[in-house]
Each structure stands twice: as structure tokens, then as C-alpha cells.
Amino acid sequence: MPSSPPSKSFVSAAKGYDFYRTIQEYLERASKIAKIEPYVQTILSQPKNELIVNFPVKMDSGEVRLFKGYRVQHNNLLGPFKGGMRFHPQVSLDDVKALAAMMTWKSALMRLPFGGGKGGIKFDPQSISKAELQRITRRFTHALGENIGPEYDIPAPDVGTNGQTMAWMMDTYSNMVGSAHKQMVKGVVTGKPVASGGTLGRTKATGQGLVFCLLEWAKEKGTTLEGATMLVQGFGNVGSHVAVILSKLGVSTIAVGDHTGYMYNPEGFNAHKLQDHVLAHGSIAGYPGGKPITREEFFATKADIFAPCALENQVGEAEAKALDVKLVAEGANGPCNPVGERLLLDKGIDILPDVLANSGGVTVSYYEWVQNKRSETWSEEEVDARLEVAMKRAYREVSDFARGRKCDLRIAAYGLALQRIEAVYKEREIFP
Ligand code: NAD
């Protein structure tokens, strides 16, 4: 294969897309199907708290730049607010609100003692030095102050953040609480590197969870994944682990794409090598094992599975019409917009929805939080075994609900989550 950069084409599916409105519409539809009390739907239609912090950071050049950070705390009825921190130029309050609400549904669906939250900073982490990234992360954590905490609101990695970001956040927070409490606050963030109190199995957890879900889907359909082909959009944490884990099960990734472009290899990419390349260079650009293709050609490539693992609003009308796959497994949050989703379902393409398919991340975050509380270290086998049980059970519950209520899997996942939250509101009632 020639060593050439992937083609460049970054267009999202629909301009002016309102992600938050989409999540509201799912909430409305699922509330009807699951017969949720109107007052519960009203409470869940808005986040509990929306924080915006503006904070200054001295850049390497000596210039002082002001950054805008967000933390949206959607709901904490079932436990502390919980959800990722995104560092990306497109971060906006409304998108963070949508993502925070989805975290509430995921925690409830997975029966975790967490609520939902999400945060982020609007900037491009790839355009600055590591030292600047550290100062931005620490200053943001400081600005959030007591608005986060191991029993109150627990951030984790998301797009543009990773274990290193979490180590800086934890270190900053623990220095703010005073030496006597330092050891007790490790659980203020999850997704930490293992040496800093993280859990084995967390880095790959979202991808691993998606694969467990996929296996249960295949079992239900009476099919096998062995010999299947796959398209992966986004080759960061989630996408690369999905490709690596599935390659061991005989699934061949024949087309990939990220923010730098798209590539095709009919013989299948070596997922391990491509993952190493991305870890070393920050993107798939320059990887020698594939032929550059356009974004349009990527979506038109025939395969068995499409795993969107990048950003929201990637599959709209054109992409859904072009896709020639049997299953869309949503590693990313909100990758299909409602028009794209409708077209896919009308074409008979199954969708494993985000709220179910990528909830392995928050599930293993919970395992990390429990280990931090108990000062325990679980083996990777134990983490994986617990995750497998949790993901497969959730898949079956969602699938049963969908069959029983004659709805799609997304509405079923929302419906189940909403019923669990509603049950608690009914018992506890509204203060005062
Ligand atoms: P990441 O930063 O590790 O990777 C993001 C990937 O998306 C990169 O490959 C990037 O190049 C690609 N990308 C960005 N903009 C793109 C564009 N315009 N077109 C094509 N590709 C683009 O992030 P991640 O942690 O892998 O998260 C990916 C998705 O999975 C997000 O939607 C995130 O919310 C979701 N998610 C992540 C986790 C987790 O544990 N990290 C858990 C649940 C859900």
C-alpha cells in the first residue's frame, strides 16, 4: 500500500444541528412509551445545574488567554453526578447539556448509583503544548472548586481528554482539600492511570462494553461476528479499542476515518498497529497501510458493521442513504441525527444505541470508584467479567422492552432508564 495521507473531508451531517433538542425529543417519545408521569419528565427536561467558568491561563509565549469551561449537572437522584470532560473546539453549553442528560439515562440503565453530568472546555488540545494543557486542566479544576467531588460530581475522560488529564485533575483537587483528606478523594475522577488509582480495564472499557453488547446482539440474531467486516469512524479511545478487540474475534476493519480524513484497506487494517500509530502521532494521518478515500466513499463502503466512534451528528440523510451495513453500533454519543436514524431503521439496519452501547465506560468508572473507596485493586479479568455480565444483561433488558412495547432499541433504553428514575421520584416525592 502507498504511504500517503488520508483524504481530508470533515463535513458533519447537518448544519445548525440542535443536539439538545434531539435528546429532548427522545425523552418525550420514551416517556410516552414507558408511561412516565408528566412531572418526572418535566424535572428531567432540564439539568439541575449549569456552570460556566471563565479562567485565565498563561501560555508558553507569555500571553494570557481566557478559557471558557462548562460543567452541567443534569440529575443526581440515584447518586453523584457522573460524566466525562470534553476538550474540543466545538464544545458548547447546549451540547454539554445533551451529553449530561444522556449520562443520567446510562447510569440508570446500567443500575449504577450515579446520576448524570458532563463538562468541557472549548479549545483544541492538539494545538497547544503539553505544559499548556496541564495548566489549562489544573486551572479549570481549580475554577470548578467544590462543584466537583467524589461524593458529589465525578468527571471522567471524553473526547480530547485521557488518563493523563484525569491524573492532573485529581492531583489539583486533592491539593485543594488539604493534606489530611488527600487519600480520601482519589475517586473525584475516574479513568485515571492505574498507578494513580485507576482501575485495570478502564482504558478499553467503552470499546469492550460495546463488543459485549455486539456479541449479545449477534447471539439474539443467531449469527456470528467471525469473518464480519467493519467501518470505524473515529480512531481514538473508543474506536481503536473496538477495532482491536473485534480483530481478535475475527472482525476485519476495512475502512477508518478521523478528523484528518478517511482510509480504505480491503484486506483489513492491522488494528493494533493503527492504534499505536494514533497514540504516537495523534491521528491516522500518515499511516502507511491504507488508500485515502473521501468521506462520501467511506460511508458508501459495503460492510457488515458501522461503528461511529467520533462525534455527534455524523450520520444524516446522505450518510444513512449511503450506508450499506447490517448494524450501526454507536460508540460515540449521538452519532446519528433523527433523520439519519429514521432512514437507517426504514432500511432495516439495526442500531445499538449510544445510551446502551457505550455505557461500558461509565460502568467500569463505577468499578474504579468502588475500588478507590475500598482501597482495593481488582484484576483485569474481574473487571471484564463484571462488565460482560452488566452489558449483556442490559442488552437483553433493552431488547425485551423494545419487543414488548414495539419500539426501537434507543427508545427502549431511554424508557427503561426513565422507569427506574421515576420509581425513585415516586417513593421519595418532591422536596419540600
Ligand atoms: P477521543 O478523543 O479519544 O477520539 C475521538 C476521535 O474522533 C478521534 O479519532 C478524532 O480524530 C475523531 N474525530 C473528531 N472529529 C472528527 C470529525 N469531524 N470527523 C471524523 N472523526 C472525528 O475520544 P473518545 O473518548 O474515543 O470518544 C469518542 C466518542 O465516544 C465521543 O462521542 C464520546 O462522547 C464517546 N464516549 C467516550 C467514552 C470514553 O470512555 N472515552 C465513553 C462513552 C462515550
Task: Give a brief description.
The chain contains 15 helices and 12 strands. The protein has 432 residues and is α/β, with parallel strands linked by helices. A hairpin with a 2-residue loop joins strand 7 and strand 8.
Describe the overall structure:
The protein has 432 residues and is α/β, with parallel strands linked by helices. Helices cover 44% and strands 16% of the residues. It has helices at residues 19-33, 38-44, 93-109, 130-144, 163-176, 205-221, 237-247, 271-281, 295-299, 317-322, 338-346, 354-357, 360-374, 380-405, 409-428, and strands at residues 49-58, 64-75, 81-87, 116-121, 153-157, 229-233, 252-258, 261-264, 291-293, 305-308, 327-329, 350-352. The strands form two sheets. It has a seven-stranded mixed β-sheet with strand order 9-8-7-6-10-11-12, sandwiched between helices. A five-stranded mixed β-sheet has the order 1-2-4-3-5. Helix 6 (205-221) crosses helix 14 and helix 7 runs antiparallel to helix 8 (271-281). Bound molecules: nicotinamide-adenine-dinucleotide. Residues 10, 157-160, 206, 233-239, 257-259, 283, 309-311, 331-333, 358, 361 line the site of nicotinamide-adenine-dinucleotide (NAD).
SSE string: HHEEEHEHEHHEHEEHEHEHEHEHHHH
What would the average pLDDT be, to the nearest integer?
96
What binds here, in terms of ligands, is:
nicotinamide-adenine-dinucleotide
Q: Could you give the order of strands across the largest sheet?
A: 9-8-7-6-10-11-12
Which class of secondary structure composition applies to the elements? alpha/beta
Q: Taking Cα atoms only, what radius of gyration do you get, to the nearest Å?
A: 21 Å
Unreliable runs? 1-10
Shape: globular
The amount of beta strand, in percent, is 15-25%
The overall strand count is: 12
Give the biggest sheet. Answer: 7 strands, mixed
